[in-house]
Amino acid sequence: MTESVLDYMTRLGRAAREASRVIGRASTAQKNRALQAAANALDAARAELTAANERDLAGGRANGLEPALLERLALTPERIDGMIVGLRQVAALPDPVGAIRDMSYRPSGIQVGKMRVPLGVIGIIYESRPNVTIDAASLCLKSGNATILRGGSEAIHSNRAIAACIQRGLAEAGLPAAVVQVVETTDRAAVGALITMPEYVDVIVPRGGRGLIERVSRDARVPVIKHLDGICHVYVSAHADLPKAQRIAFNAKTYRYGICGAMETLLVDQSVAKEFLPSMAAQFREKGVELRGCERTRAIIEAVAATEEDWHTEYLAPILSIRVVDGLDQAIEHINKYGSHHTDSIVSENLADTRRFVAEVDSSSVMINTPTCFADGFEYGLGAEIGISTDKLHARGPVGLEGLTCEKYIVVGDGQLRGQESV
Amino acid sequence: MTESVLDYMTRLGRAAREASRVIGRASTAQKNRALQAAANALDAARAELTAANERDLAGGRANGLEPALLERLALTPERIDGMIVGLRQVAALPDPVGAIRDMSYRPSGIQVGKMRVPLGVIGIIYESRPNVTIDAASLCLKSGNATILRGGSEAIHSNRAIAACIQRGLAEAGLPAAVVQVVETTDRAAVGALITMPEYVDVIVPRGGRGLIERVSRDARVPVIKHLDGICHVYVSAHADLPKAQRIAFNAKTYRYGICGAMETLLVDQSVAKEFLPSMAAQFREKGVELRGCERTRAIIEAVAATEEDWHTEYLAPILSIRVVDGLDQAIEHINKYGSHHTDSIVSENLADTRRFVAEVDSSSVMINTPTCFADGFEYGLGAEIGISTDKLHARGPVGLEGLTCEKYIVVGDGQLRGQESV
Question: Given an 8 Å threshold on Cβ–Cβ distance, is B248 in contact with A365?
Fold first, then answer.
């Protein structure tokens, strides 16, 4: 290609903006037809998908990609099944676009309400998992947005093969190809261009490691829906049912170590610490979880001495820091200070405690008597999620179809004029 | 002051963050008490307010401030009345904080819903109108946020005097002084610091001219709720009731020329242009509104030839551009291309036309048979507004108390665990 990366990205951006007008007013039936047809296309293209993925895997091995990353890159038959099921699930979700709420008459005689509409063009920047291509494209399409997808260069052949299936789906539904575009160049300047075209791109969703997200946030001239750390806490309060607390804390840590909703720090009220900690610690030790504790914790159970650094750390591993706190106030203070405002839970049977915890903990999900690992779009009933936002503005917590839309005001009158008596 | 501007702003930021935790959990009654007490303090301090404002006005005159800016700077007795009434109105508004919606049981047995909570710390950057100090502080306080206010240097004495009254109100209600802080230095580096402290400031609201807003948006490392142009259109469709259309278009342009909801371009369907334009033009001409038209317009009425530039221009003045369009499609295309996505209206008695216009015009307010000048927080029933957002993310259109809050998820269980059968 002889055109510059900037020209190329501008061309994609302009095409996406055009296409966003078409997909924004497409009917629910038409969008669902495209999703179902893309699912059929994926099912029919298993051999091509596997062959394309083999090329990426071979390239990855040649470049010395770590085994964990190769594992993420692999498009197994089960993962292809997962993409197909995912497309059909998104087709089955209710369409958020066009919903009107809260229409009411004002004293002037006009009616005012809000209508849910697509954001426009969404740029997705992600790393090696090729199935993100389907997740992101399907959610954006269903919510009436055009998408520009920039996957990792190590997955470029897989992403192209997946994109070809999406293209077949769009064509079958009579929708323009530019509704979903995959950036074809692996030049890193493409990312720089994508995040600095507010005239063509309305929002960027980076999905990947902290380095990617921080870089995108720092350099973007377009709003970013981002997900940083998940330093999640469970607080076992003075009024906890202790066997229940132990089950919750164990599930919160061990359901999966690598998810952002995994508990990283356990806070235990000093009034129950002696009774609670020994059996809790035994269970974690049996599972192979390393315990790091504050001084008061280490007076009760064996644990590595926790440092200030530990309270700030998202381990994503079988390691847990434990702190004994004076009471509810110190628990809330600890969470708001050291946490990442992601997901935090109190275990308590006392209404006053839980009421305060819910009101005062400043996190995207605040929980009562529930393990933090429940923080997930499917568990919350969103149907699917494009990520979990740790931002406060726009979308906070798991982001589903609604998070990919916004609301505009609609005002209906019959000739009412401002500054004059109602007609 | 011997500390650097950065140190000073960091100190304000840290104090605001601390105070935000207190105001965030303050009761509705306590917040209302502070607002009412501040209103009483303003009423009791009329002499001080006038004296402080006199100093600013004298300084402004000495510095050759334009008469229009001096007029905006003046704190007349009526404007002081307005601030007092404004505070009492905000006290009377419903408190958005803590509202819980959509709690529902999930198959796992957990209940999931959303709770409305304050954003945290809001930085307001504004130009010469000192009454913005009260508007901004009262809305932020009622919505449970701490505020850092950076007014124009030409209004510093007025702003300090107003802030002193707010401080009396906060003290009477037992709330910390740092809930509302006015930046005391007129050093411009203070703005640079305020918009780059994401650890202390959650959102910036710039209120002022385009230059200010563009500068803040460009340099901010904190989300910005911003208001750019208001290039608003009225489209007189083929199915318009023409006398009604004339009343609406006249009101949209002439209610006030200087507001962002004022109509700047009138689009007229070719099928009604000959019948509609002559009497419409006569009415505008009588009012002294300069008309600039496309060729087809100028074939019907006398008007200056409109240039491409005109369609892009927010006049905020008695000037109107007029274009004859082929029909609904071209009208929507014109609005989405040349408009500023602020407020646009169709005049039509036809349901299919209005349904398409509402769905396809990509503006923060889309109207039917209503003048665009109705775009306003009071008219929409928000009680008060901190501005009109032309952003798509978070808040779109007039921003009231709700726009200064966000929602977090709340999850309530009774020991349910993930990945296991419900207990």
Answer: no
